[in-house]
Amino acid sequence: MASNAGKRPKVFVTRKDVPQNAIDLLKSSCEIIQYDGVGAVPRAVLKERVAEVDGLFCLLTDKIDGDLLDVAKKLKVVGTMSVGYDHIDVKECQKRGVLLGNTPDVLTEATAELTVALLLCTARRLTEAADEVRNGGWGTWNPLWMCGKSLQGSTIGILGLGRIGLSVAKKLLPFEPAKLIYYNRSEQDAAATVNAEYVSMDKLLSESDFLIITCALTTETRQLFNKKTFAQMKNDAILINTSRGPIVSMDDLFEALSTGQIGAAGLDVTDPEPLPTDHRLLTLKNCVVLPHIGSATVATRMRMASLAAENILAGLSGQPLPASIY
């Protein structure tokens, strides 16, 4: 462990690979205790350190629950370097008066770009085609070899037309889909900017040629894509998930892809993460799996880190958090 001496508020940073701009920002007015091991901080170390700090800088890999908060007697604020916060028990934080901030908006465009890239990669079978070049499968020209699916003239469905979903829709318009449809808990006024039609969940499943998941993980959306929902989709439909892994049943997705119930899938998120290298999905040519890199641009990650730090500093100084969860 590395720390800076000083009678200032203490902040525990749970990873050593947090961008330095956030560390420098925190150091300006806080004593930093930073985990210096490889990967995610072990639970025992997290519990030990959180007991002595005023602020906590965490990531998606860190579970912040009642058990942890029971020992965090001095904790005033938690800043997570993420938009999602399903790794945090929000009610337990509220009950204890612990402020909680995340990093919304910052990664919208980067994640939307990756979503479009993953959609194109899956639809046009790019990874499969690249593998054929490497393994000697590229032979005499064949008119139907490596043919994929075109976005032009298609029906693109989006589950969750929030910030990221809307940005994805805007980026897909130049590809000239015949129709954009979406399902949300309620109709979105912003849908008019992309001429997207609000439909039922059943219609979204049955009509989409490409179905893109950009909704949050909630009790209602957990395992939403399963045997029942896959059975409602077109047998050549392509599913893209850049939201949260547990929204899709990995086992049911394997069955749907391997039996031809749906055409293909592109995943930037899985359940669990990382996905084991011997997982059945990785044996399928019609499934593209990425290692949760939706926000992985240098500029985006640096801004996420600084916003998480800014949330912590605001909470420690009694100021409103720039991006408060409640």
From TrEMBL:
UniProt-listed InterPro entries: D-isomer_2-hydroxyacid_DH, D-isomer_2_OHA_DH_cat_dom, D-isomer_DH_CS1, D-isomer_DH_NAD-bd, NAD(P)-bd_dom_sf
Annotated organism of origin: Plectus sambesii
Family membership noted in the UniProt record: Belongs to the D-isomer specific 2-hydroxyacid dehydrogenase family.
Name this protein carries in UniProt: Glyoxylate reductase/hydroxypyruvate reductase
A GO term, aspect molecular function: hydroxypyruvate reductase (NADH) activity
Any one Pfam family match given in the protein's UniProt record, by short name: 2-Hacid_dh_C
D-isomer specific 2-hydroxyacid dehydrogenase catalytic domain span: 14-323
GO cellular component, one term: cytosol
SUPFAM superfamilies according to UniProt: Formate/glycerate dehydrogenase catalytic domain-like (SSF52283), NAD(P)-binding Rossmann-fold domains (SSF51735)
Oxidoreductase as UniProt keyword: yes
Keyword Oxidoreductase appears in the UniProt entry: yes
Residues of the D-isomer specific 2-hydroxyacid dehydrogenase NAD-binding domain: 116-294
Alphabetical keyword list: Oxidoreductase
